[in-house]
Write a structure and sequence with these properties.
The chain is an all-beta fold. Helix content is 0%, strand content 48%. The protein contains no helices and seven strands. The strands form two sheets. It has a five-stranded antiparallel beta sheet, with no helix packed on it. It has a two-stranded antiparallel ribbon with strand order 3-6. It starts with a strand and ends with a strand.
Length: 71
């Protein structure tokens, strides 16, 4: 996997390789200061997230995670 910060409130995650996705999916906890407010998986909006983490059920996958900016 690759995780890259794209700004103070955004992270991109790429899952690839021979990863076998477990039945419950892969939980991703990005190192962002604010709570998550939006997640995209392969360019489509996802509602499989909470304030701290996102769930991905496919591999390969490209995710973009955005948090609420912290003042």
């Amino acid at each position: 996997y690759v995780m890259r910060r794209e700004g103070p409130d955004r992270v991109r995650v790429e899952l690839h390789g021979d990863l076998a996705v477990p039945p419950g999916g892969i939980l991703i906890r990005p190192p962002l200061a604010g709570t998550l407010v939006a997640v995209e998986v392969d360019g489509r909006g996802s509602d499989a997230f909470d304030a701290d983490s996102a769930l991905c059920r496919t591999c390969p996958a490209h995710l973009r995670l955005r948090s609420r900016a912290v003042a």
